[in-house]
Specification:
The structure holds 3 protein chains of 3 kinds. By secondary structure, chain B is α/β, with parallel strands linked by helices. Helices cover 32% and strands 32% of the residues of chain B. A 6-stranded mixed β-sheet of chain B has the order 6-7-8-3-9-10, sandwiched between helices. In chain B, strands 2-1-4-5 form a 4-stranded antiparallel β-sheet, with helices on one face. Chain B has a 4-stranded antiparallel β-sheet with strand order 12-13-11-14, with helices on both faces. The model of chain B has no long low-confidence stretch (mean pLDDT 86). The chains are: A mainly alpha, B alpha/beta, C mainly alpha.
Chain lengths: 266, 291, 265
């Protein structure tokens, strides 16, 4: 419990920044949207709808329909997911690697606690952080959508999106912590976690542009929980949920396995 | 000629004290000790001399030049050994030493070999893989590489085994004989006693005494231990000049400062079995200052 | 000069990894041009049905959209994003790693002024960025020529590609400023990733909302690929802001670091 509390406290300030940043993005984007929707620029929506999917994708406005706030939120969700993924992957890597980075491993790992116990406390703290960011995102989105949805149902869709977001966060947390647990050099481990995150983001953008690459969707978590499906059509794909949970579980087990066995840097 | 001259130096970190009022002068060719417990302000003083931090008020000169304004020129002839070892990732010992040497525009190849030989340091190893003591040796070599006229040491011998410490002190002695001035900061008094001529004692950010080691020991203080025939009354020795009094049954020991005649009269009034009057070591004087 | 060369050497591996990754991403994205080109004809027909006002609002020129620079303007953002992360990492590490590696004591007790230390380090960073950008230019040009059957406007393409370097300069300068202000940055990547992506997202949101005032907030939009593709020119007001950011950040960095206490760690 003490390690858990210590980690919560150590990450508190950064978590507040992330929550503020997330709220800021959602609020400014949706606020600006409200202005545009009020001006009734319907012709723009029609225009966008006619563009080929690849062009919509690269312009970051797939399926944008200005008459429907939910559709606009789906567009913004891409960036919400990106921020959450950066937060999770870096948090997962740093929380495991920080003792070696700060040369405090001699302090912590000689305490009467197993390494697995320490990892568990740290991962729980990381999951708590991710959950808080998720809930803040949920709360802010819910409040904004309540103002803008004009009576269209959004609560269930939004809840599904946030559930998908949470799975995405867990997945990237496990990517970060596994790379830190396996690699051992603090700087290299954040590098690997960032590299994977960046690669999957670029790949998901490439798939948007080029539908021939759809078969590669399983390689990028950004494609596991499509925002449009979550919000409007109401469904998770069992395969992708299972894949996300499975990958996260395997990576977490790997993190424990390797961290228990490797030499610590002092 | 004064090599280091510090005048009323003051430094605060936000609201917490670094040093309050530090003044002292180190003459050419001296080995000058700078002692005080943790947090007294030794490192703050030294880091100011090195222009790593900037004083709130007061000034310091090295080689007669202002240590902040002429930091670069001064550094040419200063060697610094910090208490904690620094290192760049992924460098071999020889790479770091060559990099260090490159700042002084001299060819130090021979000197590196000599120093590394004397300390038994493997030049081809990666610094990352060295033990703490060996990293310390890297720190020593890089500090002495350019035959500096002034050597500043901040708690230098932590992490060296006794044998290596001796080799290190011999090295310093040689440098001193060649004309180098040394400022030696430490809280380990025995090494200061071994090495230094004069010492400044710092307490809570202020210099409380500057004197030669020998006069600190000889002139003012006597360490007295006695064994009496009967039990000694503690009150008997509670008068001016007596400190660190320790009475156990019929034995007593204390540090005395004052008239020798007065204490001898006091002692002769007792029925003594044994008595020793000697010079206290620096440690005991030190305790006296901090009481 | 010794600091310069030392720094140059110590970032070498890092730069190689970045250059290879960005190069691979460049080839991957540009190779999609052929697929894009097939649907672009259809797009052009569609666009011709729209009133000019709307097209203008989106900064789209029907004639340009089906060209290679038109396509390039869509994908360049991702590559610049990678370059920006690399640059910010370098900018932060240059001085930041002295604080974390406890090497500041080593370096600053040598007979060099702090100004000289900063200058040498910044020059080393600049060299690495210039080399990275040059390699990127080579790879992008080669891929562009190999995927475009007909010719394309290389002048415009070059202007767009060079924006990679300009954005790198901005983020390196920001990173440098951050490293001087923040006392001790323990992990560089989380800081640079969140900053760079933050600005990137701000720029993308600005684009989705079609609001060019938001562009002032995001260095990624100071050299907006869409604009360059269409007009074969930079937008002077944004470029000026970019230049001002670099100059101010570097000048402030010098000033702060010169007068900063270097604490023992």
């Amino acid at each position: 419990m003490n390690v858990f509390r210590r980690e919560l406290r150590a990450n508190r300030r950064s978590l507040i920044f992330w929550c503020l940043g997330m709220a800021l993005i959602i609020l400014t984007a949706m606020g600006k949207y409200a202005g545009m929707a009020a001006a009734g620029e319907q012709s723009i929506s029609d225009f966008i709808k006619m563009m080929p999917a690849s062009v919509q994708a690269v312009m970051g406005m797939s399926g944008l329909d200005l008459s429907d706030a939910r559709s606009f939120f789906v567009v913004i969700y891409m960036y919400v997911a990106l921020m959450a993924a950066i937060h999770a992957s870096m948090l997962g890597a740093v929380i495991i690697a920080k003792e070696e980075r700060d040369r405090t491993s001699e302090f912590l790992f000689v305490k009467p606690m197993t390494r697995a116990g320490i990892v568990t406390s740290k991962l729980l703290a990381a999951v708590t952080n991710a959950a808080v960011l998720n809930l803040v995102t949920f709360a802010v989105s819910f409040a904004v959508m309540g103002q803008l949805a004009k009576g269209q149902p959004f609560a269930a869709g939004l809840a599904r999106m946030m559930l998908g977001l949470f799975l995405l966060q867990l997945l990237f947390l496990s990517v970060g912590s596994a790379s830190a647990a396996i690699i051992g050099r603090p700087r290299a481990s954040t590098g690997v976690a960032a590299g994977i995150m960046l690669f999957t983001f670029l790949l998901s953008s490439a798939i948007d542009i080029n539908s021939d690459w759809d078969v590669l969707k399983f390689l990028t978590p950004f494609k596991y929980f499509p925002a449009r499906d979550m919000m409007l059509d109401g469904g998770f794909t069992v395969f992708y949920v299972a894949l996300a949970v499975g990958v996260a579980a395997v990576l977490t087990v790997a993190a424990y396995y390797f961290f228990k066995r490797r030499d610590l840097r002092v | 000629m004064a090599i280091i001259e510090i005048k009323n130096l003051k430094k605060y970190y936000g609201r917490s004290r670094g040093i309050e009022d530090v003044s002292f002068t180190v003459e050419e060719g001296e080995i000058f000790g700078f002692i005080g417990p943790n947090g007294a302000g030794k490192s703050t003083t030294i880091r100011t001399l090195l222009a790593l931090i900037f004083p709130a008020s007061g000034s310091a000169t090295i080689f007669g030049k202002d240590c902040i304004r002429y930091a670069k020129e001064i550094a040419m002839d200063v060697g610094y050994l910090p208490s904690e070892v620094f290192y760049y990732d992924n460098m071999r010992v020889i790479d770091l030493l060559k990099y260090s040497a490159s700042f002084y525009g001299k060819d130090c190849g021979k000197r590196i070999k000599e120093l590394a030989g004397a300390l038994g340091l493997d030049l081809r190893k990666k610094i990352d893989d060295l033990s703490f003591g060996n990293k310390k040796k890297v720190g020593i070599v890089q500090g002495l590489i350019h035959e500096p006229k002034l050597i500043i040491l901040d708690e230098p011998s932590i992490g060296l085994d006794p044998l290596m410490q001796r080799t290190f002190f011999d090295l310093l002695g040689e440098e001193n004989k060649k004309g180098a001035t040394i400022l030696f900061s430490s809280h380990i008094l025995s090494e200061v006693q071994k090495l230094c001529g004069r010492v400044a004692i710092i307490k809570e950010g202020r210099i409380i005494n500057i004197d030669t080691i020998s006069s600190l020991q000889e002139n003012s203080y006597k360490k007295i231990a006695l064994e009496a025939a009967a039990d000694v009354d503690k009150a008997y020795f509670s008068f001016d000049g007596v400190t660190s009094l320790d009475v156990k049954g019929s034995t007593a020991s204390f540090i005395y400062k004052g008239s020798v005649n007065a204490i001898l009269r006091k002692l002769s009034a007792l029925e003594l079995i044994n008595v020793s009057i000697g010079e206290p070591d620096l440690e005991e004087i030190f305790m006296h200052y901090y009481r | 000069m010794n600091i310069y060369f030392h720094e140059l050497r110590s970032y070498r591996k890092n730069t190689i990894i970045w250059v290879l990754s960005v190069g691979a991403a460049t080839v991957m994205f540009l190779s999609m041009f052929t697929i894009y080109y097939e649907s672009a004809g259809e797009l052009v027909r569609l666009f011709q049905a729209f009133p000019d006002a709307i097209l203008k609002a989106f900064g789209m020129d029907v004639a340009k959209i089906a060209t290679l620079p038109g396509f390039y303007s869509f994908i360049l953002g991702f590559l610049v994003l990678c370059g920006a992360i690399q640059a910010m990492n370098l900018g932060i590490s240059a001085l930041g790693r002295e604080a974390t590696g406890k090497t500041a004591d080593f370096l600053l007790t040598k007979p060099v002024t702090r100004t000289q230390v900063i200058t040498a380090k910044l020059l080393a960073v600049l060299t690495h960025l210039a080399v990275s950008s040059a390699v990127f230019l080579l790879v992008a040009s080669a891929s562009a020529f190999s995927v475009s059957a007909g010719g394309f406007d290389y002048g415009t393409f070059l202007m767009m590609t060079l924006s990679f370097f300009y954005v790198q300069l901005i983020f390196a300068a920001l990173g440098f400023l951050v490293s001087v202000i923040v006392p001790k940055i323990k992990s560089v990547l989380p800081v640079s990733l969140s900053t760079v992506f933050g600005f990137y997202i701000v720029g993308m949101v600005g684009a989705a909302l079609n609001d060019d005032r938001i562009y002032y907030l995001s260095p990624f939009k100071y050299f907006d690929p869409a604009y360059i593709a269409q007009y074969s020119a930079y937008q002077p007001q944004y470029a000026a802001v970019g230049a001002a950011v670099v100059i101010l950040a570097v000048a402030a960095g010098y000033l702060i670091y010169k007068n900063k206490d270097i604490h023992a760690v």
